[in-house]
Amino acid sequence: MQRVRIGITGLAVVFLIVLLAAAVVGFHSKEKTGEANLTAEDANSSKAAPSDPLAELGVAPGGTASSTTSDTPTQDPSPKP
Question: Are 60 and 54 in contact, with CB atoms under 8 Å apart?
Answer without folding.
Answer: yes
